[in-house]
Amino acid sequence: MKKTKTKVRYYDYSLKFIIYFLLIFGLIILYSTSSYNGRLKTGDPAFYLKRQMLNTIIGIVCMEIVSRIDYRRWKVFALYGYVAAIIMTLLVAFSPLGVTLNGARRWLGIGNYSFQPAEFAKIALIIFLAAFVCELGKNIKRIKSLGAIMVLTGILGLCVYLFTDNLSTGIIIIGIGIVVAFVAYPEYKPFLIGALIGTVLIGIFLFVVFNFVELTDDTAFRLKRIFAWRNPENYTSDIGYQTLQALYAIGSGGLFGKGLGNSIQKLGFIPEAQNDMIFSIICEELGLFGAISIIFVFGLMLWRFMIIANNAPDLYGSLIMVGIMAHIAIQVILNIAVVTNVIPNTGITLPFISYGGTSVIFLLAEMGLALNISSKMRI
User: Fold this and answer.
1) Mean pLDDT of all residues in 225-253
2) In terms of pTM, does the model score above 0.85?
3) Which of 41, 104, 108, 140 makes a 20 to 30 Å CA pair with 115?
């Protein structure tokens, strides 16, 4: 008698291990990086660690809850989430709920709690685009459908940039939309043309800036950052200072670093080192070996996302995984590129490691979505 193969429910424990590894490592390196600032500003060296731990616990609870909810249930809320993300960015700019911190108005404040709508916008867009492509069905082959995806992505990205003054998240949102469209649309030609046009326009823009724009006190802040990107050593007193100090940290770390807790640059030389520039402290304390190891762990995470996307039970789940993979990949690449001065400074955090409550909560909710999709796979 012929035996029938029974399908076994799968759960990606390897992905969960990677998530917890990054969280634990992040808390350790965050304490090492922020203890000096914490003691200086609040008298408590563990100030940033305690706040991050609290938000991490909240995020883990969110991850566990979301991982137990069938991901297909979120489909009916896709449009509402997209619209809510736009409304929240408007509230930041035009309502009393908008909160300004460190000179940037990017938060919504409710009582004693504040959060960044830009972080919610990322996961809202991923779910919305996955649902939208599924609704298009065979019509996805039309160039109009590709245009619709990019317009809807552009609207949200532009709202995040204009109303929360958050260029880095706007870039990530546009990147997510491009990757999802690239996977869903059956032809490569529009993307190759778009990449060529984009490269030419960026080249022309940089040529004009470096040859015809004079840097003065009235020059736009982001244009100043472009000048500092080209020659950070010429702007050691202001716009190029943070980048230059980060490069000193990376260079002084050598192959194996100075040892955990032994960074010099975190002692007030790199402003707010626990935020965007935390990767430079990893390089200084753990060296090139530590930096490559963390990049490798992120690579393993992306590989697990790809496996889940390829084996998801339906197109909707597969596209959600593509969006999550694009989000993490783009954010990690941009953060490391900024810290190493490959691109101009845009102020972008390193996922799971940089200090930021809203970021870690929504990241872990996103991971819960990925874990739920993995549980629907069959092996």
Assistant:
1) 83
2) yes
3) 41
